């Protein structure tokens, strides 16, 4: 680290330190710089170094250190005010406010001292001629902190009534403070209206909208504005994550997670900031933080996770229950210190109320990966009457009702009945149905139980149901892989059932069950028949037998209606296997409609999902969308999490494909949520988050998109999702970071994506990403790295025969070269090469349209060449050198005019822009008549303009207005200038 030997070096070092991240390292450097300033023996140097130290302390977790440098500054002001320049005089009065609020944050500073300080602030502001607005704002903070509501309201009114002047907080900070007060008084809507302009970015500062985005979270949820709350959390947390001084705002985000069913994300937030548990430089923000830690840990304990290990203060391991007790104790101890200082109980009351909050919503999906850490729900206990024993007859009746009507949870109801029947003597029929449904629950492992059920049905005198149970057993054999054995077994059962039915030995329901089991088995064999026509025909005949037996004879029997619906859908399945996709889609739709008509919509979901896939394949996007929406509607509460996630993800793709990024984002968000609930965060959830990020990006919601894409990336792998998905995610993330001004990070993402794309056979994406990385590196101030990226892109564009990309990379490199000392010659050479590439490509253009486009590119290159030469002039250069440079620039700009003129009205705005640039150069070269002629030519070009010279719309009209204004301004300057 170089030694500070003069004032300029000190100022440069302080400016550099100001750009460093908040924290102890920056504070230590400020202390070193103060020592260096003292050695310079320049009073203003010490004043500036003290101001710098005070500022970095204020924006850190060591706020308590700022009182010492401020006291020294104030003493210096009182002794020698003439040592302060105008800026430092303003700064001294400005930081009175920081010190005032900082005193409130420190419970060891007596309230009497704070009140005395408030009076001192008022006195000094009055002497300096400042408004009392900042004083009344500070008074309001003191009154609100101690719980003196009457005084707080008076000070609030006086604050708003006083004139804004140079000492008033910025608009953003004032609006945040006013909104905070409204929210404290339970006026959430009023608070949000005050914050609106800050949240929308109209007013900003170093800590806004950071704090407003944090403060608005709970009010938004209380008002039911959940989408806004989600967006503000994603945007706001991104802003405060790296800012050490914003522990209070960070606590608001943890609180939001605790109150919206996002306990897992709350834990992630705690793990990111371990120092927040112990940093003691600002006790009030530590009180806020420990209060919400207690709140979050209590939520985990209520969820049955009190013994779960959680992040906490360093030095030991913590369970949620232990940390809850520790955090509550710490928070209440801090609150008691404040209350002792204030002489009220207000701070403790607020802390207790905050820790006692109950969830505001069960779960608010956020889009980022965060699975709710809740244990599986305990199974429902059997119905227990007043006698204390399960009511077995009631359980049997309910189970039979559910199964007769094919209602969800029928299998569970039979399991509950079986549990209550242990040790109870039952008749064979009851035991048969229990065994039958237990076998259904076991799937392929239930074959033996189906045989047991069949024997019990036979013992109960129901041979038809016995055959049906055995047929179900045959079908599960097919599910287990023994399709041929199942087909042989079911054939005999089928013959027996038909004979028994013909002899009136059983009913249509039992017979239909056997016939359907046979159809299912043969359809399954058709799936493995690789298009065998005989196998398909046999399966289709079996399905049609179901329809022949049942269709038109269902009456009020839901089971028989379900057989008809399933048979229609099975015919669709077979048509699809035969390659007749249109018929398959029609039959799936018919089957789904039949299930809905039978009052069994949840059975329609599988076939509506298949219909959607077929419709999409056939190009019927609207049909696919209808089917997906129907599947979600009909699945209702019965739709399991994986299926719900898949449907929402497919619907997001379809809706996004027709351009509705807003609704598509809603479905992608839902897909991510349900994938997390299904335990598929790393697979299906990563897909959903990737899509969600893309749809948010399309809406220009850069911060939210970045947060979601960053959450998706760790789970996206080339093996599972394909390297294309990884590249697209990095690409999108780079775009977001670029829009957010995080250019170095954007460059990293774009280079990472380019490195993957480098191995692809087609290199267009590689070239584009290298070019974009060059842009980001240049904006990050990394000129050498940017030049390398542009050169890489240029080589790729050349190999791809993409002249436009090559030319633009050369121009970009020229502008970069100009930044370097003595870089003009290299910049000039690169621009000249871009001109040559344009001219060569123009001569070789394959058609007139391509030639015209290349001519336009040539015009822009000449124009940029002239602009580059003009900007390369330095103030202390010799007049002759500057004149020669301007002559060279004028030559390039005139060539641009000529090129655009050759393109006619289609390049009017480009031509007039070049004309004006030429006019300005001619004026600088002392040729006013030529410059006037240029300006008048531009005005003449737009005479009688009616909005349709080269197009129409507001953008066109604005371009014309801008050109006219520039021309008139140039003309005015030239005609008014004395000669």
Automatic annotation (TrEMBL):
Protein name: Tetratricopeptide repeat protein
Lineage: Bacteria, Bacillati, Actinomycetota, Actinomycetes, Kitasatosporales
Domain of life (superkingdom): Bacteria
InterPro entries referenced in this protein's UniProt entry, alphabetically: TPR-like_helical_dom_sf
């Amino acid at each position: 680290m170089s030694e500070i030997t003069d004032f300029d070096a000190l100022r440069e070092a302080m400016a550099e330190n100001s750009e460093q991240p908040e924290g102890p390292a920056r504070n230590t450097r400020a202390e070193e710089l103060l020592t260096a300033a003292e050695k310079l023996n320049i009073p203003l140097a010490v004043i500036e170094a003290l101001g710098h130290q005070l500022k970095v302390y204020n924006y850190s977790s060591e706020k308590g250190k700022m009182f010492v440098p401020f006291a020294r500054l104030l003493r210096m002001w009182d002794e020698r005010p003439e040592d302060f320049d105008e800026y430092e005089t303003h700064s001294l009065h400005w930081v009175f406010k920081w010190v005032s609020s900082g005193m409130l944050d420190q419970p060891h500073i007596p309230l009497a001292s704070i009140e005395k300080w408030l009076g001192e602030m008022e006195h000094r502001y009055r002497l300096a001629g400042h408004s009392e607005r900042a004083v009344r704002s500070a008074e309001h903070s003191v009154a609100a902190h101690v719980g003196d509501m009457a005084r707080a309201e008076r000070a609030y009114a006086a604050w708003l009534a006083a004139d804004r002047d140079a000492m008033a907080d910025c608009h953003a900070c004032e609006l945040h403070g006013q909104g905070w007060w409204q929210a404290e008084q339970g006026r959430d809507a009023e608070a949000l209206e005050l914050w609106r302009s800050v949240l929308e970015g109209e007013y900003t500062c170093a800590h806004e909208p950071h704090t407003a985005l944090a403060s608005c979270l709970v009010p938004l949820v209380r008002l039911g504005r959940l989408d806004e709350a989600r967006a503000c959390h994603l945007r706001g947390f991104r802003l405060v994550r790296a800012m050490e001084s914003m522990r209070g705002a960070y606590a608001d985000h943890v609180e939001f997670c605790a109150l919206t069913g996002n306990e897992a994300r709350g834990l992630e937030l705690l793990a990111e900031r371990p120092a927040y548990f112990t940093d003691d430089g600002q006790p009030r923000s530590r009180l806020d933080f420990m209060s919400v830690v207690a709140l979050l840990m209590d939520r985990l304990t209520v969820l049955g996770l009190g013994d779960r290990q959680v992040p906490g203060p360093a030095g030991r391991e913590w369970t949620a229950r232990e940390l809850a007790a520790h955090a509550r104790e710490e928070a209440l101890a801090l609150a008691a210190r404040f209350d002792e200082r204030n002489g009220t109980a207000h701070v403790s009351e607020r802390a207790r109320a905050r820790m006692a909050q109950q969830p505001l919503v069960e779960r608010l999906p956020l889009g980022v990966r965060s699975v709710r850490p809740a244990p599986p729900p305990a199974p429902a206990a059997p119905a227990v009457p007043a006698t204390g024993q399960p009511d077995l007859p009631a359980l049997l009746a309910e189970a039979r009702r559910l199964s007769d009507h094919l209602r969800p949870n029928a299998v569970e109801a039979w399991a509950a009945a079986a549990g209550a029947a242990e040790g109870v003597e039952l008749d064979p029929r009851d035991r048969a149905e229990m065994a039958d449904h237990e076998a259904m629950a076991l799937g392929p492992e239930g074959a033996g139980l189906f045989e047991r059920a069949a024997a019990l049905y036979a013992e109960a005198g129901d041979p038809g149901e016995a055959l049906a149970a055995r047929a179900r057993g045959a079908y599960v054999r097919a599910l287990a892989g023994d399709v041929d054995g199942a087909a042989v077994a079911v054939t005999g059962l089928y013959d027996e059932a038909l004979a028994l039915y013909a002899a009136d030995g059983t009913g249509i329901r039992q017979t239909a069950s056997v016939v359907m089991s046979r159809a299912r088995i043969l359809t399954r064999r058709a799936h493995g028949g690789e298009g065998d026509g005989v196998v398909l025909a046999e399966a289709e005949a079996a399905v049609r037998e179901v329809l022949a037996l049942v269709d038109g004879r269902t009456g009020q029997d839901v089971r028989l209606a379900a057989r008809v619906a399933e048979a229609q859908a099975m015919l669709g399945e077979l048509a699809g296997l035969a390659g007749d996709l249109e018929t398959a889609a029609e039959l799936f739709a018919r089957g789904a409609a039949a299930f809905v008509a039978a009052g069994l919509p949840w059975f329609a979901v599988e076939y509506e999902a298949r219909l959607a896939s077929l419709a999409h394949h056939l190009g019927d996007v609207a049909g696919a969308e209808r089917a997906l929406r129907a599947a979600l509607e009909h699945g209702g509460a019965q739709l399991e999490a994986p299926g719900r996630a898949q449907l929402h993800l497919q619907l997001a793709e379809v809706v996004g494909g027709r351009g509705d990024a807003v609704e598509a984002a809603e479905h992608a968000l839902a897909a991510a949520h349900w994938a997390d609930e299904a335990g598929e965060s790393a697979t299906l959830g990563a897909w959903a988050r990737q899509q969600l990020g893309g749809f948010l990006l399309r809406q220009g919601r850069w911060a939210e998109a970045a947060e979601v894409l960053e959450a998706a990336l760790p789970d996206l792998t080339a093996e599972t999702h394909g390297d294309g998905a990884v590249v697209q995610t990095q690409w999108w993330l780079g775009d977001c970071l670029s829009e957010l001004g995080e250019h170095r990070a954007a460059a990293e993402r774009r280079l990472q994506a380019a490195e993957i794309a480098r191995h692809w056979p087609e290199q267009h994406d590689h070239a584009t990403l290298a070019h974009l990385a060059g842009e980001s590196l240049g904006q990050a101030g990394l000129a050498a790295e940017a030049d390398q990226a542009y050169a890489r892109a240029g080589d790729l564009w050349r190999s791809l025969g993409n002249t436009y990309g090559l030319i633009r990379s050369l121009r970009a490199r020229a502008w970069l070269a100009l930044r370097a000392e003595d870089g003009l010659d290299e910049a000039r050479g690169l621009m000249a090469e871009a001109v040559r590439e344009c001219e060569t490509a123009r001569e070789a253009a394959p058609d007139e349209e391509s030639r015209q486009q290349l001519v336009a590119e040539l015009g822009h290159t000449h124009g940029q060449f002239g602009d580059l030469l003009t900007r390369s002039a330095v103030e202390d250069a010799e007049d002759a050198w500057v004149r020669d440079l301007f002559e060279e620039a004028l030559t390039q700009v005139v060539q641009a005019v000529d090129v655009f003129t050759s393109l006619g009205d289609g390049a009017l705005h480009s031509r007039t822009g070049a004309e004006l640039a030429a006019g300005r150069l001619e004026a600088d070269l002392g040729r006013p008549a030529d410059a006037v002629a240029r300006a008048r030519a531009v005005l003449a070009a737009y005479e009688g303009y009616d909005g349709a010279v080269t197009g129409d719309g507001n953008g066109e009209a604005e371009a014309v207005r801008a050109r006219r204004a520039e021309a008139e301004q140039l003309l005015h300057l030239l005609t008014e200038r004395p000669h």
